[in-house]
């Protein structure tokens, strides 16, 4: 099929597969995010990606496959961003948590389209996409639980860390969703709100005590 | 249709409409929760409710309508349970929060079928059900924000209360979901985990300080 399309062949020779796949996924995230799953068309994705429709199908399959691939890629990116944020943070648990939250809200703020696809669109679609989302949540909870477990290792402590990780991931997701409706806030402000809630708790906040980022 | 069905007519005379609707909804919540939306059949719902299938359709419409009615009813019940818990709690904000969390996890523990339908099934289905779920979350966030705003009324404080309510509702949902996979925990234990997280914060918890319920 590609042999009929001179422009396509030139591109096909120039660009390695990973680059073309990335272009397709970038375009797909943009189009799914803006139109929603049902209204998004493979024509528009092909156009935005500047890659012929048959090639889009050849590389990433049906619209359903493509949407699932978007969820997987964006989830992996988000997880990598958080892990990278935390690993720069040194040993203090509050600073680790702060960097993790900054990385999370930084990612959501920078890639709002990703977050919309990941969270709103995927849960609005349900079915296999809801399953992808559930897998992503499980990975996120494991990542956070591993961080919270640094300080203690008893069985009860690790069960508690797992429960706290579930609560924290839920709080982060829900606050990121809230943020989509309050875009005037900066990533740092939203991250600081959640940091204060989970580090200081309402008890200290009511007393006027606040957590402050280092330096 | 009911005039052709002697047994149905007897029931129709004996039971007022609200009672029959309640029977149908109780049965539907049970069947949807156990089978999932797709595998659930109107035959089984009619059988469990002990109400003829034509009457099920006459009262509550199609399977889709019935599922949406289940979500609405269970969401309303949950909201009422939380509001009732909080209004018994007096003025202290920590005790109000504690009673609200106890009521929430008490409801989820007592009506696991409701929660499964509300949360897991509805989000696995997506579409209009995801919208019902979103409306329920918005109501829950408003309820919690109103509680958190008791102490202060500035615009910044009410924005913060709204963000904290979103975080808290997300944490509660996520922990309730975690609980479905850890049924050995009591409602009180799970509620106390979340209470400690949001009232004390990790900072105090790391220092070994805990929040204790009154008396």
TrEMBL record, chains A, B:
One biological process term in Gene Ontology: negative regulation of DNA-templated transcription
Transmembrane regions: none
Pfam families: TetR_C_46 (PF21943), TetR_N (PF00440)
Keywords carried by this UniProt record: DNA-binding, Transcription, Transcription regulation
DNA-binding region in chain numbering: 41-60
Domain (HTH tetR-type) ranges: 18-78
Protein name (Swiss-Prot/TrEMBL): AcrR family transcriptional regulator
Annotated organism of origin: Kutzneria kofuensis
